[in-house]
Amino acid sequence: TPKETLPAEWTGHRTNPNSLLLTRCRFGESARVRSVAEARRFLFKEIRRHGGPIRFTAHFPFHVSPIIPWTETCRVALELCEKAELRFNDQPIDLTDAEAVDGLEMVAIEIPELRLGENELTLRGVVSNAWDFEAPRITGDFHLSTADNMAFIIEFSSQTITPGAWCERGMPFYAGGVRYHADIHDRALASDERVVLEMPGLVGAAIVRVNGVETGHIFAPPYRSNLTRAWKADHNQIEIEVLNTLRNQFGPHYVSQPDHRTWYAREHYEGKAGEPLQFAREGLLEAPVVRIETTG
Fold first, then answer.
1. 170: exposed, middle or buried (Cβ count in 10 Å: 0-12, 13-18, 19+)
2. Tens digit of pLDDT for each residue in 257-295?
3. Residue 71 in 3-state DSSP?
4. Across-strand partners of 268?
5. How large is the C-alpha radius of gyration of the chain?
6. Are 227 and 208 spatial neighbours (Cβ–Cβ below 8 Å)?
7. CA geometry: angle at 60 spanning 59 and 66, to 5°?
8. In the chain, which residue ranges form alpha helices assigned H by DSSP?
9. d(C-alpha 166, C-alpha 175), whole Å
10. pTM for the whole thing?
11. Environment class of residue 132 by beta-carbon count within 10 Å: exposed (0-12), middle (13-18) or buried (19+)?
12. pLDDT in tens, 57-112
């Protein structure tokens, strides 16, 4: 039986670097900006017209907020094509330093310091299959802002993450975990009491820990965890590690239905450069509740 709700202030931090997917590009000297889907269609026509592999140069622009001086180190992760060459803000990047990304056909490599305002990643190479042309991603300790879900601005990372959809907390492309913490002091339990954690806003999976002791792996309703066995009378630190899916990192980004998962039908990845991206609302959408209940 519910008896008392304990006050708790939840703040969190990412367990992985944030990610910006570079979904728009232009080819060669052309000023036309294409989505990656439009770029694939262009490459497909060129490959067919030439009757085989073609050499291309693709420029991926992105913006860094000029408000706060940028000091963080970032990396780029991408799939390399044949005879690949990579430049960042017109500086060549040595691809011999690239590291394989676990579980993916991608490599990651550190890039030179970002500059305030406009930045540009340039990829040159040879492609024989248009579907081998993929959007690169910039990763690092930053958060993103956007007014239209089309243009995304890299900004200095916020120190804490509060409950809410991750796509609305500066992490629209993020895949990984966020560890939320709350401290509760001076609440001993009587012999007929138990303490439970309720997470009605959980969209994903969660590992719950109290004072370093795991009390539950939560991935289905009713999204509750019994904290009693790890509870202390004087001070308790509750940790909820929330994990999401790959949907927002890899797409599809042109359908709004959250049940359309990553690597769904190809047509769900088709979109134009002027079309807003759609994101699934994942994470811890509302603050969890800590309750004292009577067991009788």
1. buried
2. 655 555 555 555 567 778 899 999 999 999 999 999 998
3. coil
4. none
5. 23
6. yes
7. 125
8. 36-50, 247-250
9. 10
10. 0.91
11. middle
12. 999 999 998 766 566 789 999 999 999 999 999 999 999 888 988 767 789 999 99
Take residue 89 and report the two structure tokens written for it: 């803000």
d(Cα 109, Cα 119) in Å, to the nearest integer?
Answer: 17
Q: Which amino acid is at 225?
A: S
* Alpha-carbon span 129 to 73, nearest angstrom: 33
Q: Are 122 and 135 in contact (CB under 8 A)?
A: no
Please provide residue 230's backbone torsions phi and psi, each rounded to the nearest 5 degrees. Answer: -105, 5
Q: How far apart are CA 21 and CA 250, in angstroms?
A: 8
Beta-sheet strand order (sheet of 11-14): 11-14, 177-185, 235-243, 205-210, 213-218
**Paired tokens of 118:** 């406009």
Site of tokens 């991408």: 78
Q: What is the DSSP letter of 74?
A: -
